[in-house]
Write a structure and sequence with these properties.
It is a single chain. The chain has 3 domains: about 400 residues, no CATH class; about 110 residues, D-Maltodextrin-Binding Protein, domain 2, CATH 3.40.190; about 140 residues, Immunoglobulin-like (Sandwich). It has 24 helices and 17 strands. The strands form 3 sheets. Strands 6, 7, 8, 10, 13, 15 and 16 form a 7-stranded antiparallel beta sheet that branches. The protein has a 5-stranded mixed beta sheet with strand order 2-1-3-5-4, with helices on both faces. A hairpin with a 3-residue loop joins strand 7 and strand 8. Helix 6 packs across helix 17. It is elongated.
Length: about 675
């Protein structure tokens, strides 16, 4: 075995590349929370086979990935790392196919370079660490591409394949699996079909100048491809009516974007990944593109392989960019759908690998002529190509660092949200989900559905919202609302409108793409009232202030209801703050927002009309205990300048104390 490795060192290099690919895909694989879609995968995989299939019939994804994940979790468990490890394994196997494609189309060195590039590509690693079907989609595309490019019989009737039937079988299985994995897989099949047409045209053209045997070989290949494709589609036929129904009923909002801008954004994301700002992506984008362009345009110096080299390069170009073009042709360009293009990375890496080798050969020629050495004396080709490959890989390091370590690029953190809410959990809490499937990911962490309320997706009317929310608020004192994809889930904003007028909003923060808001459902018998008559600035009067008196615990919401009135029209928008803290120090808890959760800005107030401003302050876990004052003030939303306050005609500063609370640890 050792002797074989010494005589064929590329196997050792390939093994090292595959280990690197696996390491990068398993490294910190459970560092981030499961997010929205991953939670859906986790909960679907818990179901029976029948329920998985029935659920997929109403989803926009076929059932194969979920069925495989069900088996996988039965073997490896249902932890975050275990669920994602299937995608990591698919990603590492795709690297192997990148090597095989590069080797068979060009040579082993191209295959090794392509495998290494795919092993370190940030976009590929990102989706290899996600419990979704996209890494499996890329694997199916790479496997079917390898087989279709490989079982094609070259001109002259000499097949380079030991067992072409196995390649045809691989194509059938990979294509059928791709169809059962993602509805975007036909993009891959279209690109492969164009490659077949290209093969056929070139073969027929050369047949005229060669012999009849070439025509026979061409017909055999075309027949094999056609039969294999029909078999693969036949394997998908049981699901085809469901697929047509789901795709035709899938309302996709077209994103308004210029074609050039969209193409550049999609291409930049593929090369530099999702975890690198556009301004910092120029170096990897330009370097990778340059090598890929050289790989595409550089002619093969060997006359006997010039034909197959041209076909191979054109095929890779089609496979790399036609799915990208089809995304725009069908109006599917959205940032969320760029993951469909993971199938493009493998042919891109093979083209770039050839470009690196071409440059390496050119550098070798220069050194040989300068130093007057032969190729046998110094492996300059391998050395120079390796250096170029490593330099290109180095441009991906910032993106990879962000992927692993920068929280700004982390997935939506439902794990932290659950931990934050559960730290002070109460029997009368309620957690509201304003988008479908949020319930699935949240209950991955909270293994029951107690006090969890998925709200109606796209409610029919405000009255329906009011009825639903009134029932929840009547029995739950503290309410956590998780807003996600609000424009789709609640286009008219009725849920937040109802809550702004009927609940006391105490806190709001963004956690990834999730906006978490904390509310209190109302006042109680322990409410206190502050004496009226305070003037804020020259025109705004605080008519009344009331709130909850007594001892507060960690996690409580302190509700405050303020009644405002203006004596003259206002042309500025002021924010109201409620601070809890010491008299001579910074607040330990606060609520800053425009009145009525932003729904009654001050520049819209009618003169002498009472404006009710419900709000609250959340006593987050970990705040210091003791007695603290409750203060109210106003400031200019643009400049931050606070309004001076007069109490009984006397200036008292820029904040008004309306009471005290005692926080019990």
């Amino acid at each position: 075995m050792i002797a074989r490795l010494r005589s064929n060192p590329h196997w050792l290099v390939l093994g090292t590349i595959l280990l690197l690919a696996a390491f990068l895909r398993f490294y910190k694989i459970d560092a981030q929370s499961l997010w929205y879609d991953e939670g859906n995968s986790a909960r679907i995989a818990e179901r029976s086979v029948q329920l998985i299939v029935e659920g997929a019939a109403g989803d926009i994804h076929p059932p194969l990935y979920y069925l495989i994940l069900k088996v996988w979790r039965g073997v490896f468990g249902d932890g975050e790392a275990a669920l994602r490890s299937f995608s990591a394994a698919c990603g590492a196997l795709t690297v192997l196919f990148a090597y095989l494609i590069g080797r068979d189309l060009f040579n082993r060195r191209v295959g090794l370079i392509a495998a290494f590039l795919l092993a370190v590509m940030p976009f590929a690693i990102y989706y290899s660490q996600e419990a979704r079907m996209y890494a499996l989609l890329a694997l199916c595309a790479a496997a079917s591409t390898f087989s279709i490019l490989d079982f094609r019989l070259p001109i002259g009737g000499q097949s380079k394949i030991q067992n072409p039937k196995s390649k045809i079988l691989l194509y059938v299985l990979a294509t059928a699996a791709g169809l059962w994995t993602q509805y975007a897989y036909p993009f891959v099949m279209i690109a492969q079909g164009v490659c077949v047409v290209l093969f056929t045209i070139y073969d027929l053209r050369l047949t005229i100048d060669s012999n009849r045997q070439s025509s026979i070989v061409n017909r055999k290949f075309l027949l094999a491809y056609t039969v294999a494709s029909l078999i693969a589609v036949a394997l998908f036929l049981p699901w085809l009516p469901i697929a047509v129904r789901q795709i035709s009923g899938w309302g996709v909002e077209r994103q308004a974007v210029a074609l050039g801008e969209g193409l550049l954004d999609a291409y930049r994301t593929l090369i530099a990944g999702r975890t690198l700002p556009s301004a910092e992506s120029a170096l990897p984008l330009l370097a990778f593109s340059a090598f890929m362009l050289i790989g595409l345009l550089a002619r093969d110096t060997r006359r006997d392989t010039q034909y197959t080299s041209v076909i191979s390069r054109l095929s890779l170009l089609i496979l790399a960019f036609l799915p990208l073009a089809l995304l725009f042709v069908f109006g599917l360009y959205r940032e969320a759908y760029l993951k469909f293009l993971l199938v493009c990375l493998t042919p891109m890496c093979v083209l770039a690998g050839r470009g690196i080798l071409v440059i390496g050969n050119w550098l070798m020629g220069i050194v040989q002529r300068t130093a007057q050495i032969t190729n046998n004396q110094l492996p300059i080709t391998s050395t120079s190509s390796a250096i170029l490959t490593l330099l290109l890989a180095a441009t991906f390091v910032p993106s990879l660092n962000n992927l692993y370590n920068n929280p700004a690029y982390a997935r939506d953190d439902y794990r932290s949200i659950y931990q934050l809410i559960s730290a002070t959990a109460r029997d009368d809490d309620a957690v509201l989900f304003l988008a479908p499937n949020q319930w699935e990911v949240y209950t991955y962490y909270q293994r029951n559905d107690r006090n969890l309320f998925p709200l109606t997706y796209r409610p029919a009317s405000y009255d329906d919202v009011a009825m639903q929310m009134s029932e929840i608020a009547a029995t739950h004192r503290r309410i956590f609302a998780l807003f996600f994809a609000e424009r789709d889930a609640d286009p008219d904003g009725w849920y937040e409108l109802w809550m702004s007028g009927n609940l006391n909003k105490a806190h709001e923060e963004w956690i990834g793409n999730i906006r978490m808001a904390v509310y209190d459902s109302g006042m109680d018998r322990d409410a206190w009232q502050a004496s009226p008559g305070a003037m804020f600035g020259e025109a705004i009067e605080l008519v009344e202030a009331s709130g909850r008196l007594g001892v507060a615990r960690e996690g409580d919401v302190i509700p405050v209801e303020l009644t405002w009135r203006t004596r003259e029209p206002l042309d500025k928008r002021y924010k109201v703050f409620v601070h809890i803290g010491p008299e001579d120090g910074p607040p330990i808890a606060q609520n800053d927002s425009e009145p009525a959760a932003g729904y009654r800005p001050t520049n819209t107030w009618p003169v002498n009309e009472n404006i009710t401003d419900r709000r609250g302050v959340w006593i987050r876990p970990g705040l210091p205990g003791g007695t603290h004052g409750v203060y109210v003030g106003m400031y200019d939303s643009e400049t931050g300048e606070r309004l001076p306050i007069l109490k009984e005609g006397q200036p008292i500063g820029d904040r008004l104390k309306i009471g005290e609370i005692t926080i019990s640890p």
